[in-house]
Amino acid sequence: xxxxxxxxxxxxxxxxxxxxxxxxxxxxxxxxxxxxxxxxxxxxxxxxxxxxxxxxxxxxxxxxxxxxxxxxxxxxxxxxxxxxxxxxxxxxxxxxxxxxxxxxxxxxxxxxxxxxxxxxxxxxxxxxxxxxxxxxxxxxxxxxxxxxxxxxxxxxxxxxxxxxxxxxxxxxxxxxxxxxxxxxxxxxxxxxxxxxxxxxxxxxxxxxxxxxxxxxxxxxxxxxxxxxxxxxxxxxxxxxxxxxxxxxxxxxxxxxxxxxxxxxxxxxxxxxxxxxxxxxxxxxxxxxxxxxxxxxxxxxxxxxxxxxxxxxxxxxxxxxxxxxxxxxxxxxxxxxxxxxxxxxxxxxxxxxxxxxxxxxxxxxxxxxxx
Length: 370
Description:
Layout lengths: L1 H28 L6 H7 L2 H19 L10 E6 L8 H15 L3 E6 L5 H8 L2 H5 L2 E6 L1 H14 L4 H8 L3 E6 L5 H5 L5 H10 L9 E8 L7 E8 L2 E5 H12 L6 H12 L3 E7 L6 H7 L8 E2 L18 E13 L3 E3 L2 E2 L12 E6 L4 H4 L1
Parallel strand pairs: 1-2, 1-3, 3-4
Antiparallel strand pairs: 5-6, 7-10, 8-10, 9-10, 10-13, 11-12
């Protein structure tokens, strides 16, 4: 009992005392992120990273005849200063800015200052899409998602127009977020690796996107629902994963132990959510199934007409399958990793034309989640 009480006290201190201490520390060091010298003092590794980048760049230029895809072009750098460990501005001053100069890429820096700022910025200023050849994000997966959806909304939600414009407009990311699953799937775990990938890039490479449609109650009338659509290039999750992200990005955001505490909390709760998962899969060979450990969707229960939401095209119903269960978590993912340290679908490629669904029901034990 004494041990249990002591552990509870330690957890309470970890959750509440440390964030207050860090709030004071961050307030005292905010000005460090505004100039290159102070950034290097705070993150001395960035100086070593820049030296490595310069050395590697010489090797890359000797080996590649074609210039960098963005050389002599102009891009917009969008920096989320509070992403992850709040190092984005320091990374920009000490590493990204000099690297872009070396690559011959001119840029303009914009620092986000509020929630959803990146999305609104791109959506509301159409001139940015004409003025620049691309956007480079210093932030996490969420900031890049905002940029893509701002671009989509600037096209009026017109998918053909979005596809046409995106063929000549590039999107890039320097990972400074918490999870960085998308950049990790592109073999860029650090800002240095991302910049080296940029230096090696001679052609724009496509990435698959999928569309999410949701319904929400109107603010004017609860009887009315509004259909919302957005694009995603990475991962959409519900259940325990969503709870985990809420804890790490909101409740425990300033806690240095958040990535340890959050999994323990959600696994201990192991809350289940009733739901139905509808799938309209594509055929694959037995060899593909063996390599990827995918489940044969054709063996799932076929949907009845009444099962399927009216928004799904009627002509597609014969191919739909359904899983009706209580789910601990469910994720739809386009890439190999959900986070820099979380492999979800090792065989997945961001441009393989497929999205993958992972679902855990109540039969999974805690050891399986760990």
